[in-house]
Amino acid sequence: MREKQVVLFDLDGTIVDSMAGITRSYQYALAHFGVEVENPDALARFVGPSLYRTFAEEYGFAGSGCRRPWQSTASILRKKACLSIRSTPACPV
Residue 76 in contact with residue 29, Cβ under 8 Å? Predict the structure, then answer.
């Protein structure tokens, strides 16, 4: 049997900076539900923790109500956020 060779990369924060795309998608999803966030950088503290909990605690979405903004965010991330990804200073292109 052949031995498999695998290379793993830690992209997020190491090779690429995806923060702008993530926070903009949060901003867009929240705006869709009437929550205006002027500066998407203010949403950086939400990157990492559960969005279900974040949207429920911070913006009052409860139960299935927090699922809709989360689904909007996920959809935006898949469609548009990749356009905001740039390389980190540690890995210039």
Answer: yes
Separation CA 62–CA 83 (nearest Å) = 31
Among 29, 35, 31, 13, which Cα is nearest to 89's?
13
Which tokens is 48 given? 């990492």
The answer to whether 10 and 46 are in contact (CB under 8 A) is no
Cα 80 to Cα 86: distance, rounded to the nearest angstrom: 13
Mean pLDDT of 43-47: 89
Has 10 been annotated as catalytic? Answer: yes
pTM higher than the cut 0.85: no
Catalytic residue among 10, 12, 17, 41: 10
DSSP character at residue 86? E
